Amino acid sequence: LHSPDPIAGGARRAGPFVGRDRTGTGWGRAGQLYVPHQQDDHVRKERPGGRCQCRALGSGLLVDCSTLTSKCLLLKARMSASKSGRALVRPSEHALVDNDGLYDPDCDQQGSFKARQCNQTSVCWCVNSVGVRRTDKGDQSLRCDELVRTHHILIDLRHRPDTRAFNHSDLDAELRRLFRERYLLHPKFVAAVHYEHPTIQIELQQNASQKAAGDVDIADAAYYFERDVKGESVFPGRGGLDVRVRGEPLLLERTLIYYLDEKPPQFSMKRLTSGLIAVIVVVAVALVAGVVVLVVTNRRKSGKYKKVEVKELGEMRKEPSL
């Protein structure tokens, strides 16, 4: 996403990010190799006083080149650019899915989502720390008292069903390595990996008390991973997601992510009522259709019987009387 900030005659460790040190050799003092920076749609590189800095587009906030950029800033930059275990887990009844699509978010000075988000038509709603809506939409009088943290993320994946089943232990180890090395997520936050051919589930868990300074947020790691799976990698100048289990490529077809907050979402009964009405309408239509088919079928059968009776009566009249 952005280039490292050279300091003290060498280059800071850039993790999955790109850039060069001041020597231009591509090597830091400790011998790490840095890939030359390539300009992308999410960051603007500046050199005030000869010092390399990176600012997120759309918000203008300085970003740390040694770790992942927050999901809020990535969405902000994206919208700015556009204007310019073996047993599977059932998601909690309170789990949220991001069905609202892209929007231009409001981020605070730390790059986190603000609790209340609004669009350009004065429609507002409350979000969680992942930026997913957790209330009904309202007007600008809507109050969002706090940013509720998402502490549990369930990533539901599916690989190509025509490939042979992977060894669960090997798959578990490879996915944990991926999140550790590519997304810099501490291994303790990958709670479990479940597999039932061809479905894979990755559980990420991180409470506010567990997240230390400098730890990557599970929300950011999940977002980077989702973009990789969709072929829309946030990392510039790097290939797409290439995961191999014992040399066999893991070819993923789709991903669905569930978010569980520390507090249940606050949707009103209107949302539930609309869904219930839809179910009732479908059932009613099915019943009416069944009744119509039954009536038509009975009428056709009755018509056949009447024709047979009339025919038999006519034949009896033609017979000579004794």
TrEMBL record:
Record-annotated Thyroglobulin type-1 domain positions: 69-144
Region (Disordered): 1-22
Segments crossing the lipid bilayer: 275-297
Mode of membrane association: Single-pass type I membrane protein
Primary localisation category: membrane
Keyword annotations: Disulfide bond, Glycoprotein, Membrane, Signal, Transmembrane, Transmembrane helix
GO CC term, one of those recorded: membrane
Compartment annotation: Membrane
Database matches in SUPFAM superfamilies: Thyroglobulin type-1 domain
Function: May function as a growth factor receptor.
Similarity comment: Belongs to the EPCAM family.
Stored PANTHER family: TUMOR-ASSOCIATED CALCIUM SIGNAL TRANSDUCER (PTHR14168), TUMOR-ASSOCIATED CALCIUM SIGNAL TRANSDUCER 2 (PTHR14168:SF5)
Protein name: Tumor-associated calcium signal transducer 2
Organism: Sus scrofa (Pig)
